[in-house]
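Folds vary. Our protein:
___
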Amino acid sequence: MIEPPLQDVTADDRLRGENRGAVAVNSYLFVVLEGDRPLSGGARFALEGVDEIVIGRGQRRAASVEARDGVRRLTLTLESPLLSRLHARLRRDRGGWILEDAGSRNGSYLNGQRVASGLLGADDVLEVGHTFLMVRWFPQRADESTADLDSSALEGELAAFRTLVPPLAARFADLRRVARSSIAVLLCGETGTGKEVLARALHAASLRPGLFVAVNCSTLTDGLAESQLFGHVKGAFSGAVADSVGFVRAAEHGTLLLDEVGDLSSAAQGALLRVLQEREVIPVGRARAQAIDVRFLATTPRPLDSAGGQDPFRSDLFARLSGYVHTMTSLRERREDLGLLAAVLLRKAGATDGEPLRIPPEAGLALVRYGWPLNVRELEQVLVRSRLLSPDGVMHVELRPASAGGAAPEAAPGPSAAEHELHARVTEALVAAQGNVSAAAQALGKGRVQLHRLMRRLKIDPKRFRA
């Protein structure tokens, strides 16, 4: 059975049997989206050791931490005239956070409802002055950065590698290191997550002098795939009126992307396997092989043993293409990056800092809480359409159905306060036990089987907490 692994791994990782799981859990405050400044991107602020968060109006987006009277306080200022100088507080409570409005003029909102106080859960959205915030918890990898980060600091980075999410940033750092090698990379993930965009970024980061060539494997003509991939000489077959270099040789000293590689026919798979093994091609109609210097990348939206392709996928070809496997993160799993991505996509569409763009509160909340079934591609279409249809700069976002006649999917409701507290208790027990389920169960006063059921329900993987 051929199936991409759940986490990014290299062949060396598998041979060494390294466990790169997390041994700690860190929490962060994310500025997800500023409705009055959609081109400002987002930011994250580490909450390790922080007891209280104070949010208010300032001249710029910034955070500072100070300790006074035994309380470690993070003060976050945001550039919004709708904020009061002292707008709201978040107070740590049992591993979670309690929101308290500080008597602000325009109020504090939790998931769209104005509140004086309330428990902020893992998926809840806090709105203050048209700015949307989230507190999120992440298991930490040993080589992960926990520093505060503003998306403006990432502007020198290739757009495909930008993220505020610490685990994803660590995986992108791995990809940048892999990019400078000749190892084949397989990008797996849902449609619209940006697999080709990331492939182009890998080529740019590789500094290879040749071209980036992308071929959609589902469009290769059955019976002519070898000619299309490897080229042919004039007269090699009926219709070959001129020499052709083919996709592989066109990428000489560069990168060849095999998009939707699972759609290759069995004959094309066999021919491509030989090219990857021998690093040479034989154009159709020629007897002599020609050496090549090509970096191979491939994408697939589904496990390569699924029935979606024309033929079963060869395990030996999978082994050649999966030197490094990266699983794309869906947009609903990286909501913290929504403002960062929105700024990138709007600038790509021509928006400038002098343009009076604004996303009203109801539209901003809808963007943050929407399920994004078509991922970043859908976000780009929504933003571009909203900007074009908003001559006054006020972007009234319309989230359309994913399919004709269907209802637009809703964001999944956030966990209840009880579930949030339970998640925190289980996570803390696993951190203390370094992923040992029996020890964690004993600390929680539960049976091992009962804890396994809880972890499945709460979507907690104990392996990530093992040292």
